[in-house]
């Protein structure tokens, strides 16, 4: 009978370490965003040609486009984990929770497509 009530040593544990991956991903994406911000700030502070042409030259470099894309995709994943946790913790109605998560995903995908369009149009 002890195995049916799920108490004691025979307790069925599911979802162990469920949040560790997302917690670690948020820390890694935060570090990437900080490094990107520092590089952008350093470029801004040391630039002598700080005009549209200077910014266009910076963003025309392939490595900077890729670094920007990786940073923004990291930002979008960071936002997804945070918003998903907010919806899961504070919205009790399952239908509303699912709708909010769906809207969040749609917006983040749209933002990702828009980011690629902007980065590769320079």
Textual characterization of the structure:
It comes from Massilia suwonensis. It is a multi-pass membrane protein. It is found in: Cell inner membrane. The chain is mainly α. 76% of the residues lie in helices and 0% in strands. Helix 1 (18-46) crosses helix 3 and helix 3 (62-90) runs antiparallel to helix 4. It starts with 17 loop residues before the first helix and ends with a helix. The mean pLDDT is 88.
Short description:
It comes from Massilia suwonensis. Helix content is 76%, strand content 0%.
Q: Report on the biggest sheet.
A: none
Helix content: over 70%
What distance separates the N and C termini?
Answer: 68 Å
Poorly predicted runs of 5 or more residues = none
Number of helices: 4
Succession of helices and strands: HHHH
Oligomer: single chain
Radius of gyration: 21 Å
Task: Write down how many β-strands occur, each being a DSSP E stretch of 2 or more residues.
Answer: 0
Task: State mean pLDDT (0 to 100 scale).
Answer: 88
Helix vs. strand class: mainly alpha
General form? elongated
Amount of beta strand: under 5%
What labels describe this entry?
single chain; mainly alpha; 4 helices; Succinate dehydrogenase hydrophobic membrane anchor subunit; cell inner membrane; transport; Succ_DH_anchor; tricarboxylic acid cycle
Sequence-ordered SSE layout with sheet pairings:
Blueprint: H1 18-46, H2 52-60, H3 62-90, H4 94-119
Helix pairs in contact: 1-3, 3-4
Keywords: Cell inner membrane, Cell membrane, Electron transport, Heme, Iron, Membrane, Metal-binding, Transmembrane, Transmembrane helix, Transport, Tricarboxylic acid cycle
Protein name: Succinate dehydrogenase hydrophobic membrane anchor subunit
InterPro entries: SQR/QFR_C/D, Succ_DH_anchor, SuccDH_FuR_B_TM-su
């Amino acid at each position: 009978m002890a195995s049916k009530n799920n108490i004691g040593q025979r307790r069925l544990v599911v979802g162990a370490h469920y949040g560790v991956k997302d917690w670690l991903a948020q820390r890694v994406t935060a570090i990437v965003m900080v490094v990107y911000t520092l590089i952008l700030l350093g470029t801004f502070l040391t630039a002598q040609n700080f005009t549209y042409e200077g910014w266009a030259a910076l963003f025309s470099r392939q490595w900077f486009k890729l670094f920007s894309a990786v940073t923004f995709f990291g930002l979008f994943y960071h936002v997804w984990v945070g918003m998903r946790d907010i919806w899961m913790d504070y919205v009790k109605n399952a239908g509303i929770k699912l709708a909010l998560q769906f809207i969040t995903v749609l917006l983040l995908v749209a933002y990702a497509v828009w980011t690629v369009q902007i980065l590769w149009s320079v």
